[in-house]
Amino acid sequence: MLKVCHLNSPEGIETLCSDMEVDHTDVRILMLAWKMRAEKQGYFTLISIDAFSVHSLNLPGPVLSPWMLICALWLTVFHLFMEEWRHGLKSMRSDTVNKLKKALPDLEKEVKRPPNFVDFYNYAFRYCLTEEKQKSIDIESICQLLDLVLGSHFQAQVDYFIEYLKIQRDYKVINMDQWMGFYRFCNEISFPDFSNYNPELAWPLILDNFVEWMRAKRT
Fold first, then answer.
1. Quick one: average pLDDT of 138-152?
2. What is the C-alpha separation between 193 and 46, in angstroms, rounded?
3. Cα–Cα distance between 129 and 112 in angstroms, integer?
4. Where in this chain does the record put each DCUN1 domain (predicted)?
5. Partner of 95 at 20 to 30 A CA spacing, among 73, 159, 169, 180?
6. CATH of 4-112, one of 3.40.50.1460, 3.40.50.670, 1.10.238.10, 3.20.20.80
């Protein structure tokens, strides 16, 4: 049977990957995190203690000792963690490691459906925001994430964009708008001639720069 300990720490995730004979850097693990609605990298859990207060728990604050409050918070965290765990497994009809492994091909098909993939692509960025109030991701990590998430769909565009990101000096990080803009770019813009690219439209500036770089590279 699958156990909670599989998913409540980065080490547990690695153990689960080993049991399923899937590398922990495999995109299917990110797909599994998406399916489980995981919000913290390396953990399949929905919430942090900071998200709770005495009032949100509807508990009588004045009578709670610090120890009682800590216990109440952790019980709530554990309950929501279990709900996430149950939801994901139920939707995949998997209650053993072997069943979960066999469910991965169907999960891949589910993610690749256009509406789901947009959500997955968006999720992949948010999943990598590991710090509180973090809004952007460093270039090195973005390059790895692009190749992992989008490389199999738009390999040429991703390869050239990664090459550009590594040599340009204007941007040290990428934000969500730029991340989603590149996905729209891949879907809408003729490549590699960029014949329908209009810089006057609402494209992130980094994509204007990328197109200029590509055109100069091709001349």
1. 95
2. 43
3. 23
4. 1-215
5. 73
6. 1.10.238.10
